[in-house]
Write a structure and sequence with these properties.
This protein is α+β, with helices and mostly antiparallel strands and 157 residues long. It has a single domain (2-153), classed as 3-Layer(aba) Sandwich (Aminopeptidase). It is 31% helix and 34% strand. The protein is built from four helices and seven strands. The protein has a seven-stranded mixed β-sheet with strand order 1-2-3-4-5-7-6, with helices on both faces. Strand 4, helix 3 and strand 5 form a beta-alpha-beta unit. Helix 1 runs antiparallel to helix 2. The radius of gyration is 15 Å and the shape is globular.
Length: 157
């Protein structure tokens, strides 16, 4: 069942971040701090953490409004436990986010990810879910690590 994250999910969410083997120690700490900021409501309006809870947290996603884009959101994180990948869990989470944003009358959903080979499955995931590769910012994260931006139009007008 996909639902809004609650503070008692914190431990399972941080375990999920670690299980993905995509983040270094500083990045894991950043994610942990981000969860804390969400639960203490210091992030502001429009920020959403959701989880897929089927007895255990198998996936999570975080999305929030873009500061200067009109009716534009950014999906800052989506992750699925490795044991659950390839079963449609991530696509279900993504559809939930998109449907929620359509209800909120949002226009675009942006996703940023790394160009490193370790993120190849991530980039393929967005293409499979009908996202367009919109931009590449070379060596954004660090030398040799590009930022890849995907977009999906949520409205039909």
């Amino acid at each position: 069942m996909i639902r809004n994250a609650i503070s008692s999910d914190r431990k399972s969410m941080t375990k999920l971040f670690s299980a993905l083997n995509l983040f270094n120690t500083d990045e894991l700490q950043f994610m942990s701090d981000l969860i804390d900021s969400y639960f203490d409501a210091s992030l502001g309006e429009g920020h959403h953490w959701i989880v897929n809870d089927s007895g255990d947290i198998t996936s999570a996603a975080y999305y929030a409004p873009e500061s200067f884009g009109q009716n534009v959101y950014n999906l800052y994180f989506i992750g699925v436990l490795p044991s659950e990948q390839g079963k449609g869990v991530g696509s279900s989470m993504l559809k939930y986010v998109e449907d929620h944003l359509r209800e909120l009358k949002q226009r675009l959903l942006l996703v940023e990810t790394s160009g490193l080979s370790s993120f190849k499955k991530t980039r393929e995931f967005y293409l499979k879910n009908n996202y367009e590769k919109e931009a590449i910012i070379r060596e954004y994260y660090k030398e040799g690590d590009d930022k890849i931006v995907f977009r999906k139009k949520l409205t039909t007008n």
